[in-house]
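Narrative of activities, Objective 1.

The group set out to show that a structural description can be obtained from nothing but a protein's sequence at a throughput compatible with the screening campaign. Below is one input-output pair from the validation batch, recorded exactly as produced.
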Amino acid sequence: TLTINGGDTDVLDLKGNGLNNEGCLSGKGNIIINGGQITADARGMNGAGIGSGVYYRKFGDITINGGTINATGGNDGAWPGIGPGASGSTCGTITIASGANVTDNGKPRTK
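Output recorded for this entry:
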């Protein structure tokens, strides 16, 4: 489990490396965000800002309890900037608390 406990002035700015199937915050475990200012831009073809772009993998739950989050998927990535990106990848439950300020800059899949 990856847990981020940032305060109002703590900033985490993540940018993927632009390669296929990369997500900024991803892994097989759970992701929990309790606060902070987080920008996650996958920049890869199938990546999610928060989640994954790896084909046919299952990832854990994503829980956003607070903070200001700006998540952007890759060019052909997750419909949302938060969640599974590549074909066949899945994640557990995605929970966004009402107190969280989330901007999801998902990009549509291209054919």
